[in-house]
Amino acid sequence: TLSSFILTATEVCPSLAAKGHIKKEEETDLCILLQSIATSCKYIQNCVRKLGLANLSGKNGGTTNVQGEQQMKLDVIAHDVFTRGLDESKRCTMLISEEEEEAIMCTSSPNGRYVCVFDPLDGSSNIDCCVSVGSIFGVYRANALGKGDVNDVLRPGKEMVAAGYCMYGSACTMVLTVGGNVRGFTLDPSLGEFVLTHPKIKCPPSGATYSVNEGNSRYWGGGMRRYVDHVKYHKEKPHALRYIGSMVADVHRTLLYGGTFSYPGDSKSPNGKLRLLYECFPMAYIMERAGGAASDGTQRILDVCCTGIHQRHPIHMGSEEDVEEIDRFYREAAADP
Ligand code: P6P
Predict the structure, then answer these.
(1) Does ligand 1 come within 6 angstroms of the Cβ of 70?
(2) Which residue's alpha carbon is nearest to atom 12 within ligand 1?
């Protein structure tokens, strides 16, 4: 189960362990932090499951989040559950939530060692029609014990030590990596436990689907347009379009089946729509550790340095060969607009 995996996570950030930078207490603290997230996800999935029955559907009385987006009741519940659970874990110095403009300092955690960034309920605008939604999270080590500072997260995504998401779909599935393999756990409601169902997720090297909102195609630049035309009208292997409009669901399908998921920058939104810190980085971290890739058309996503906790960034992720092909079309378009 997830609990036993977390408690024996001997492969916590092999890159840091290799440099002797991770000590036993750091592993234990990370395990406790991840356990707190797992508990929050169980609570949220319980709310999602009984949405209409418990009057949890609909908007949260006209409130909006930092992005100016209409909040759903479940957005606020998910944010509160994640925030309280992580703060109470006493393992974090600071939290960054999509639902909160400012960084949340965990003032009652003098030994807090980690910073957790999260989108507590991504895709919530789809929730009233029962489309899959999810929670996305990433973990950084804080620079100073017990003292959170926004600079702890204004760095490249490759410095994360763990990332994951929980999808509330036909099954409740947690996908998690602590720097090594990507594992998938499925919630067994009869046990109340996440059971290991995908011991080592690998993203296929290439796929037969592309996933992007074609409704924005009039705003696309040359790179995206050339790639989509290439796969749509491919002589031997025309690709199928699959777009759910809920990032966790689109990424989960891409991770397991291959292909690409894109939210490109365009003339209407030069940085795209998805947030770098708590959407792009965690998903890119997972995708790479599953053998896939993630870029913005010109550079590896995990090499991008975050400069603002809610900044948006274009992203293409999925099968390594397919993402390389997108990058090639972006290079061609830049050379010959
Ligand atoms: P569009 C959901 O609102 C979300 O943030 C992501 O989950 C999803 O990938 C994206 O927006 C969909 O955006 O513009 O295609 O509706």
Answers:
(1) no
(2) 245
